Amino acid sequence: MSGYIELEEGEMNNVEVEVHPSGVITVNNAKDNVSTALDSEEVTALRAYFQAERDEQLGLWHDPEDAHKVVYRVPGEDDGDGRAIGILDLRTGETECLWEHLSTDIGAADRYFAAHPPARELPTALGAIVEGNGLRMHLVAPGAEDGDAWVTTSGYWRSPSETLKVLGPDWKLVHEGMQSDE
User: How many CB atoms lie within 10 A of CB 112?
Assistant: First the structure.
């Protein structure tokens, strides 16, 4: 593709994009009188970045071993057979729905489930301790109204979702805590 990309007026805020046959892209900002040229390697890197960003927004995962397979979650179909996914073959347009524990697909489905392990739940008992990414977190206020139930050893309070983010997916349970009748 070469030439100018035509967009509706105002869409690009006076920015003009020109694609050259060599693969170089020139971005001209008439408002600021700035022009930037990107070589083909930079263009490829930006395309990959923006594709990954868009895929994340849409909940898509491209199989790294088969670029024609796109996998997406179908949570409405989850059942006792595990998490459901759809696989779209971009070459044929065919789709199939597979479940985690029933998948006979030794390919995109298995690679997807390996790359996306199920979310783990934090313990809910007072005094529970978890560790991950060099942090130790203590559950000191289960059911706190503001959501900040976990505290680090250095005194930072976190909600359960924030706790999972900072601990990372490989967190470990150090102590289960004490169950209460309250």
Answer: 23
**CA-based nearest residue to 138, from 152, 155, 117:** 152
Tell me the two tokens of residue 65.
């071993």
The strand ranges marked E within 22-145 are 25-29, 34-38, 60-62, 69-73, 84-89, 95-99, 129-132, 135-139
Q: Which pTM does this prediction carry?
A: 0.59
* Per-domain residue ranges of the chain: 3-42, 59-115, 129-175
| CA atoms of 63 and 89, how far apart (whole Å) | 10
Write out the two tokens for 143.
Answer: 């059911």
Which runs of consecutive H residues, i.e. helices, occur in the chain?
40-58, 108-115, 160-167
Supply 54's token pair: 């868009």
Each residue's pLDDT tens digit, 168-177: 888 899 998 8
Q: Which residue has the tokens 């706190």?
A: 144
Task: Locate 73 and state its tokens.
Answer: 């979650």
Structure tokens at 44: 């490829």
Q: Is the pLDDT at 158 greater than 80, yes or no? A: yes
